[in-house]
C-alpha cells in the first residue's frame, strides 16, 4: 500500500512538471508567433520599398536568390500578397528568370 501511495505522489509530481513544461512551451510558441508576425510585417514593408537597383544589388551580392525569396514568400503569403506581388514586379525587371521560377513555385501569384 505504501508503495502505491509513493508512486501516486511521484506520478502527480511528474504530471505537474509535464503540465508546467507544456504551459511554458505554449507561452514560448505564442511569443515566437508574435515575433514571426512582426518580422513578416517588417519584411513586407521592406519588399514594397525595394527598387530595381536595390534588387539588382541584392542579387549581385547573393542576398537575393530563389531559396531566400521562396522562404520569404512561404511566410508572407497569402496575408501579405500585395507586398509580394509588388516585389515580384520589381524582381521581374531585374531577373525575369527568377521571377518566372517563383511564379511557378507559387501559382497564386500568377495573374
UniProtKB/TrEMBL annotation:
Domain of life (superkingdom): Eukaryota
Region feature Disordered, mapped onto this chain: 1-22
Stretches with biased composition (Basic and acidic residues): 1-21
Name of this chain's protein: Protein SAAL1
